[in-house]
Amino acid sequence: MCIIFFxxxxxxxxxxxxxxxxxxxxxxxxxxxSKLADFWGSNNDILSGLDMESGKEGGTWLGIxxxxxxxxxxxxxxxxxxxxxxxxxxxxxxxxxxEIDSFSYLKKISAEGHLYNGFNLLAADFNTKEDVxxxxxxxxxxxxxxxxxxxxxxxxxLLDTPWKKLQHGKKLFADIIRKSQDxxxxxxxxxxxxxxxxxxxxxxxxxxxxxxxxxxRPILSSYSAVCVRCNGYGTRTNTIVLIDGKxxxxxxxxxMLNSDITQWKTSVYQFELQR
Length: 275
Description:
The protein has six helices and 14 strands. Helix content is 21%, strand content 36%. The strands form two sheets. Strands 1, 2, 10, 11, 12, 13 and 14 form a seven-stranded antiparallel β-sheet that branches. Strands 3-4-5-6-7-8-9 form a seven-stranded antiparallel β-sheet, with helices on one face. Strand 11 (229-230) and strand 12 (233-244) form a beta hairpin.
């Protein structure tokens, strides 16, 4: 039940404005092996965490490279999944390592979506003549969307599907970014992390119940908050990505250690996009 909120502003005209403000939660089994976010050893242009689950090693849920390519993934909540489907984490890594632009990549993926369990994929180029951010949901329209400037929310349904938890978190996110130009960068990051750790349950929610059916009903209360907390499963990583008007990237990851919700590590990476 990952969740992402973001503001996309490709042409910020005011001082201290951001081209991208993004806050994301990775919800996963606590014991699933993964690497903390870092630049890849074999390719120090790419920054992401990495899935280390057997058979799916090297996939990721969110990443960026120094050339301005960004991608993020959420699963689509469905009652049953195909255990033999292709791993979805490769959808992000393949884009980050490619030369193809974001829309063309999603166009290609849209023809292959049936090979995967349901997913949502954001892909963006922040180092072209004009920033471009695109979205494709394998359970939605056949064609990818080129996103207009604005504030968006994405969880495990289609973009901006009005789940109550998504609406609640999007409002909290929007309240923070309205003052983003007037507060220090570090303070903005901390305020966004607070939003992503909001555990207020948003019930009842017939929309999420109808989509998840028998799978989600027994655990609906735990899944109904921005920050998910179940037995052995839940929010284990918060990621904040800021790209300012000059191309300065601040990537902050707060991640759980040792499958223990009392142990967390925060890592911060800053770099300028290559021109």
